Each structure stands twice: as structure tokens, then as C-alpha cells.
Amino acid sequence: MLLLSTSPGIGGSKIPPRSNDKNTLACHVHGLIERMKLPSVTLVGHDVGGQIVYAYLKAYPDELQKAVIMNVAVPGVDPWSEVKRNPYIWHFAFHAIPNLPELLVRGKGAAYFAFFFDTISARPDGVSESAREMYVEAYSRPEALHTGFEWYRAFPQDEKDNHASQGNSVQTRVLYLRGEHEIGSLEDYVKGRGESGLRNLEGRLIPNSGHYAPDEQPNEVAAILSESSPHRLERLAVVSAGGTNHATDGAPISMASSFGL
């Protein structure tokens, strides 16, 4: 089964969470897995979804069969300080400003998101037109757009939470994936996550990909996730930041992304 879980308040989810810190969002995912009684889950998160997977591992260290974190920096985990200082990642600070991003982006989502799709993909056409339309639609409601920016405004709380859990050892097998053309060294990200307590961690690069690996190289991502199990993945839960919820047996692995992180 492939279960695609949209973050609360985005896309088809109309009710925002009480807080957008990643511990709270991980609790939502945990509740979903419990309600559906899913055994042997591999939890996959791209972008903010990856931050949620990290929080889930720390909060529920013995519950997953495996976890996959894709294309994302984790607040408070090296090289987070370097990421925040990088002038090319200016949108972290911009999105954290109260109200201003909503004012400037509302009604211009397609053009704003296209900037990220064009510049942090390995090539400008890496994210298809149909995927772009889906993501724009997912954030089209003012409440959804606000929720997306609230993820960034929660980063200071995420940093505190991740610092507090740094000593918590996690033995679950974790795969960290980055695009070959993303800014930063894979080794630095793997080292930081290992030092944060992820003891069974592997890092891999997605060839010919930038930040949006699930869109840019969907077959490569699907192959890597499938090869990680000696049998076909029975329960794959994907935490996404846009798109729609669905579950299907025997489906190819697919993921939705946020507009840029």
C-alpha cells in the first residue's frame, strides 16, 4: 500500500493544525498510522515532510521499519547554521516574516512557485507543468498559503525541540537522499544527522536532480526506495507538503513537494 498524507491545512485538508512545529505534525502522522493500524511502515518525507519524519523518529524511535528523509535541512541539526547563513536560501527569512509573504504572494502563487521550480531543480523543466498546477492548487486557498509560511515561522521552535532530543538514539534504518545538484555536501548532512542520534543512517545522491527529486527523477527515487527492502514495500507512508491524499495497492511511488526549501 502507498499512503500519501498531505500536511494538515494544505490541499484537500481544510483544517490547519494547532501548531506547525514539526513535533506536532509528526504527532498527526503517528495518529494516522495508528488509526489505520499499519504495521511495518516505511515513512518517507520530502522537504518539510522530511523534517516531520525526523521529528517522528525522535518522538517514536522504535515504531518504524524504516525512514527516508529527502532534500531537506533539519532545524538545529548540522549543517543548519550554515544553511541559514547562505544568501541563496533567502526565502527562509522572508517566509518567516509575519503576514508579508501572504500579502505579496497571494494570487501570484504560480509565478512565485515557478521561481523555485526553475532555479533549484537541476534543469528548468524538471518539475512538469501538471505537477506545478497541482502544487499551486494545493496552496490556492489563503488559509493553505498561510499554513505553508507558518512552517517556516515554526523553525525556532523546531530548533529548540531538536536540540532537546539530540541525545535520543534512534536505531531505525534511515536513508537520506539529496539531489546531485543541490547546494551543500551530502557528507555534511549525513554527519550532522549521525551526530544528532540517527545511528543507522545511509546517504545517497539522486543523479541529475536538484531539490525536487521526486518530480525530477521519479523512477530513480522509486527504484531506490523499492530496493531497500528484500520484498516489495508493504506499507509506505509518504508525508508530503502538497497534493491530495490517497492510498492504493501496487501503485508506483510518488510524492508531492512544498514550493521550495
- Work out the strand percent: 15-25%
Instruction: Output the strand order for the largest sheet.
Output: 5-4-3-2-6-1-7
Q: What's the number of structural domains? A: 1
Mean pLDDT: 88
Put simply, the count of helices is 12
Query: Structural class of the helix and strand makeup?
Result: alpha/beta
Q: How many E strands?
A: 7
- Indicate the overall shape: globular
Poorly predicted runs are: 243-261
Approximate helicity band: 40-55%
What name goes with the CATH superfamily?
Answer: Alpha/Beta hydrolase fold, catalytic domain
Question: Can you describe what's shown?
Answer:
This protein is of the alpha/beta class and 261 residues long. It has one domain: Alpha/Beta hydrolase fold, catalytic domain (Rossmann fold, 3-Layer(aba) Sandwich). Helix content is 43%, strand content 17%. The protein has helices spanning 22-35, 48-59, 80-85, 91-96, 100-105, 109-119, 129-138, 142-153, 155-164, 186-195, 213-216, 218-227, and strands spanning 2-6, 41-46, 66-70, 170-179, 198-206, 235-240, 246-248. A seven-stranded mixed sheet has the order 5-4-3-2-6-1-7, sandwiched between helices. Helix 2 links the parallel strand 2 (41-46) and strand 3 (66-70). Helix 1 crosses helix 2 and helix 6 (109-119) crosses helix 7. It is globular, with a radius of gyration of 17 Å. Residues 243-261 have low confidence and may be disordered.
